[in-house]
Specification:
This protein is α/β, with parallel strands linked by helices. It has 18 helices and 17 strands. The longest helix is centred in the first third of the chain and has 17 residues. The chain starts with a helix and ends in a 16-residue tail after the last helix. The structure holds flavin-adenine dinucleotide. Flavin-adenine dinucleotide binds next to helix 2, strand 8, strand 11, strand 14 and strand 15.
Length: about 575
């Protein structure tokens, strides 16, 4: 995948996609697979914004059963199956557990009805091809079994528990990047660090975007018959670029936050009712209790998600220390054995989600429940422009399908039907993941240790051989970057040469797993920066600046600086 600005300007594309988050990546891939000519531009790096902040759960429909929205339940279940099918190396089955209580809405009876409906709606959920990965039926467990699975949980009011299965993304950054790679392989022209700065706009019709190459400062025009605005928190900012034709804001923003901490509960994603203290000033302690999930991921726990209204510019957001403290208090109250301290916080995920107008009282947020596709021709009499508003990583593929259906309609031409439900993404050509993983460890390992081979199988799937090719070329690239990580040098070279990594942050945070669980140690940062400097010809001042930029990406990390990466 090459960053080729000349390709962006020398043709008129069917589709120009602004925004390289999960929604933009899905739109670009879907459209390219249908045979449309596609350009995708991202102002910074692919997946740097909200998509980098996921709790990594691919939700089945259980939470929507309570809304009695059965259509939504079915969609979520179908999308969960789709992700497992098209990205078998990156999406895996996740056991979940929620205690039941002696309150009606959280009772055994309520949960058993919800599980039964979910079960009914989930028919056909298991892929016959991969019998090694199953979603077992949900079940209600006894009080004593629940308390043995959650030792130390305050037993008052606990009546039992509900166990079910969802899916989890092993590496959400690589999932997103694999979609971009897939789009590029299907013919899309993709580029990071290209910012849309305006529209080409004639006679109430959008005909492409004006854009700036953020790396060189060069201004370009990218012509397209249809432009898809999939810019997440920047949706309204993009619509304002229509100048005199500026459209009404689409939605108020909220922030959503997760903590990444040392691991508390290794076996299940556990949902516990918790009440935030409101020290951050948003809730004043009067908030109703919410469900906090403690999700095992590698050697860490992901804890969340907490929502707050937000009215500032996305770039101006900083993680509120008081909210971190509130979350820690809430988790420790909900599950006293956690005994989390501020130093146990290795990383904080914070991103933006769309809400429905009218939220804001006492820090409450009313999240938008479903993704939307806005047809500006119908809504605003502006042709050639579609806006995608996504609410979940889980449903991004489906929302993209709707957006591309509309684009094809607006283009007024024939195109292949959507194929993204069945075509494996880059690295996803795998029949049975467990067999594949075992084979990867025993064949063509070029002397790499099993832990490294395992990690390559998870991260790059069926394309892991591309990393081994570098090792064959130069065995020194087969060495781990430092003793504290299983990431090998070849991955960094590959990120630069084949995955459009331009900055140290791109490599640390989004191409490799060096920063996935928290701030890498100094030796690791330096070794990675030195390798990049050698590849890209950076001067020492640039190298130091790159390191400083990465450190700034971990502003809210506790006083315990080093967390070594763990690979399951
Ligand atoms: C803390 C948290 C936890 C979550 N957990 C889950 C979960 O467990 N499961 C789940 O399904 N969902 C989860 N979500 C929701 C999910 O992460 C989001 O719905 C999704 O990532 C949004 O993707 P997006 O593509 O719409 O936005 P983004 O990822 O923000 O992408 C928009 C992109 O547009 C780019 N852009 C903006 N302006 C321009 C411009 N002028 N030119 C070029 N590019 C531009 C931005 O740089 C950005 O990269 C979570 C969200 C948060 C915040």
């Amino acid at each position: 995948m090459k960053r080729d600005l000349a390709r962006l300007v020398d043709q008129t594309f069917d589709l120009v996609v602004i925004g390289g988050g999960i929604h933009g990546a899905c739109v670009a891939w879907d459209a390219a697979l249908r045979g449309l000519s596609v350009a995708l531009v991202e102002q910074r790096d692919f997946g740097h914004a909200t998509s980098a902040n996921s709790l990594k759960i691919i939700h089945g429909g259980l939470r929507y059963v309570q809304d009695a929205n059965l259509g939504r339940v079915r969609t979520m279940l179908e999308e969960r199956s789709t992700w497992l099918r098209i990205a078998p190396h990156l999406v895996h089955v996740l056991p979940c557990l929620m205690p039941t209580f002696d309150q009606l809405s959280r009772s055994k009876a309520a949960l058993s009805v919800a599980l039964a409906i979910n079960e009914l709606m989930a028919y056909g959920r298991n892929e016959p091809a991969d019998w090694q990965r199953r979603f077992p039926p949900g079940r209600i467990i006894s009080r004593s079994e629940c308390l043995s699975l959650l030792p130390g949980l305050a037993p008052t009011g606990v009546t039992g528990g509900a166990v079910w299965h969802d899916a989890q993304i092993y590496n959400s950054e690589r999932l997103l990047l694999s979609l971009v790679l897939s789009a590029a392989e299907a013919g899309a022209a993709v580029a990071n660090y290209v910012q849309a700065t305006g529209f080409i706009y004639e006679r109430e019709n959008v005909g492409g975007v004006k854009a700036k190459d953020v790396l060189s400062g060069q201004e370009v025009e990218i012509r397209g018959r249809v432009v898809v605005n999939s810019t997440g928190a920047w949706t309204d900012a993009i619509l304002r670029l229509l100048g005199g034709h500026a459209l009404a804001p689409r939605f108020p923003l909220s922030i959503a936050m997760n903590l990444v901490t040392r691991q508390i509960l290794p076996d299940y994603a556990v949902g516990l009712p918790a009440r935030l203290a409101g020290k951050d000033g948003a809730g004043n302690g009067r908030e109703p209790s919410q469900m906090l999930f403690i999700v095992p991921w590698r050697n860490y726990s992901l804890i969340g998600t907490v929502h707050r209204p937000y009215t500032g510019a996305p770039e101006a957001f900083t993680v509120p220390e008081a909210l971190i403290e509130d979350m820690l208090i809430a988790v420790n109250r909900a599950y006293p054995p956690a005994e989390l301290q501020r130093d146990d916080v290795c990383h904080v995920h914070a991103g933006f989600l769309p809400t429905t107008p009218g939220h804001g009282s006492a820090g409450r947020v009313k999240l938008m429940r479903e993704g939307r596709v806005h047809d500006h021709l119908r809504e605003d009499h502006i042709g050639g422009l579609i806006t995608v508003v996504g609410v979940k990583y889980t449903t991004a593929r489906k929302v993209a399908e709707k957006a591309v259906n509309l684009a094809v309609e607006r283009l007024g031409r024939r195109a292949r039907p959507c194929q993204t439900q069945g075509v494996p993404i880059w690295g996803g050509q795998i029949d049975r993941f467990d067999d594949f993983r075992a084979r990867a460890i025993t064949t063509r390992s070029l002397g790499l240790v099993p832990q490294t081979m395992d990690h390559l199988a998870y991260s790059y799937g069926s394309e892991y051989g591309q990393i081994l090719d570098y090792v064959e070329e130069d065995p020194a690239w087969g060495q781990a970057l430092t003793a504290s990580t299983p990431i090998i040098r070849a991955e960094i070279v590959h990120a630069i040469r084949a995955e459009m990594a331009r900055t140290l942050a791109d490599v640390i945070l989004r191409r490799t797993e060096l920063g996935a669980g928290g701030r890498p140690d100094d030796a690791c940062l330096q070794a990675c920066a030195d390798l990049m400097a050698a590849e890209l010809g950076w001067e020492p001042a640039r190298t130091n600046q790159e390191i400083a930029n990465v450190l700034a990406a971990f502003p809210a990390v506790g006083r315990k600086p080093l967390v070594s990466m763990g690979v399951t």
